[in-house]
Amino acid sequence: MDWHVERFLNRLSLFLSFLATLSLLHLFTRSSLTCTAPPPNPTHVHTHNSTHHRAVPVPVPLPGGLHPNSSCDLLSRAHLSPESRLKKLLSSSSFSSRVSSLSSLFQALETLKFLSNSSRVLAVSAGAGHAAVALNASGVADVTAVDVIDLPPLVRRADPHNLPFFDGVFDLAFSDGLSGALFPEKYVEEMERTVRAGGAEAVVVERDGAGEARALFRRSSLVAERNVKLGGAEMVMLVMRNNGKNSSSPP
């Protein structure tokens, strides 16, 4: 009798395991066919007690549906093409504001005779391509923008600590991302290597880091140091002239 009971329990266990496996497969391979709209999200919830009345703020969803409320909401969204995403990025107010700030910096480089429409410019740690757009808008056509994540057609992928370019191929190298570099010395070394003798490197750093940034340049000499605003922050732009050799090397 005990043997029959044990056999029955083993079969029941296998059957239940089989059902559980089927349920998991169903969940992983089939999306939900029904989507329930989330309840209204009021801006305030009023609570009462015997002594006072207060309003408790409740987070309100960001405009434009930036964050989905459910997996169904996410699945129902239209997927934008790379061209559409780029167009949306370029039309944003934050993007335009940073481009405007960079344009004023590049005007200063034009005044110093380090930038012209015929210049070959490298933008390192270009992010979303703000510098490339600002340079193109000012009339500079030959702009190469690189970052660890590409954003075609504005930014191509490259390691700023190991730039895939020959020595001295650019007239100007610009970066507003030196402060975030993993290896600042190597970062600056690569900028100097890819700029021709007589060309320039321009970096934008926080004001309290200007001294450390200047010391990183071994093949260049300081031409200008200007207080600037970038993204609403008080920064410093260092403009260095490339000497074509290490400053510690004999003449």
UniProtKB/TrEMBL annotation:
Identification of the protein by name: Methyltransferase type 11 domain-containing protein
The organism's place on the tree of life at top rank: Eukaryota
GO function term, MF aspect, one: S-adenosylmethionine-dependent methyltransferase activity
SUPFAM superfamilies cross-referenced by the UniProt entry: S-adenosyl-L-methionine-dependent methyltransferases
Gene3D superfamilies recorded: Vaccinia Virus protein VP39
Domain (Methyltransferase type) ranges: 123-200
Pfam families xrefs: Methyltransf_11
